[in-house]
Amino acid sequence: MAIYVKLWEKLVNMFKGIHNMNLDGKGRLTIPSKYRSTIIDQVNGNMVITIDSEEKCLLLYPSTAWGKIQDKINNLPSFNKNAKRIQRLLIGHAEDLEMDSSGRVLISKPLINFAEMTKKITLIGQGEKFEIWSDDIWNSRVNKWRSEETDESQESVLSDIII
Question: 28: domain CATH number?
Fold first, then answer.
């Protein structure tokens, strides 16, 4: 059991950085080489992709990380309007992917269209997942975030982080 805990800790903290990439003509994304062996070792190349419920981007999870999220989503009260929205959006758009021998995953046309992706994309490591953005939307959002003031009501969330 201890070995699985160590592997999970490595997986949760492994994805970071910004990677400017291209989708090929078939809609395949090549996972950066530094992450491939870990994804193969820990989840046999199995991943899940879905939409972000708040932004025009996609979320790419190793299958084990997604399984935990899906369990939490499935346990939300089905009579709650916001819970139902999240269930429909995240689980409804979720697709299983398998990384091929060249380190690529195939993103479906409906998901590519949702995120308004063309050839140039930005892959953002977020610990246990990747965010996949259209370059244009990513650049626009980064400019917006940089110009925003911190919401005073949200500052307590950041109070323990010292940079």
Answer: 3.40.1550.20
CA–CA dist 157, 1 (Å, integer): 32
pLDDT tens figures, 28-67? 999 999 999 889 988 999 999 999 999 999 999 999 999 9
Of residues 125, 111, 142, the one with CA closest to residue 28: 111
Tell me how far apart the alpha carbons of residues 135 and 156 are, in angstroms, rounded to a whole number: 31
> Tokens 């879905």 sit at which residue?
50
Q: HSE (CB half, 13 Å, CA atoms) of 21?
A: 22
Range of the domain at 121: 16-135
Question: Over the stretch 122-155, which tens digit does the pLDDT of each residue have?
Answer: 999 999 999 999 999 999 999 988 888 766 665 5
Which residues on neighbouring strands pair with residue 157, listed in sequence order?
none
Residue 21 to residue 130: CA distance in whole angstroms: 13
Cα–Cα separations (whole angstroms), residue 81 to 57, 59, 78, 100, 121: 23, 23, 8, 38, 33
Q: How many domains does the chain have?
A: 1
Instruction: Specify if 11 maps to a domain.
Output: no
- Alpha carbons within 13 angstroms on the beta-carbon side of residue 1 total 0
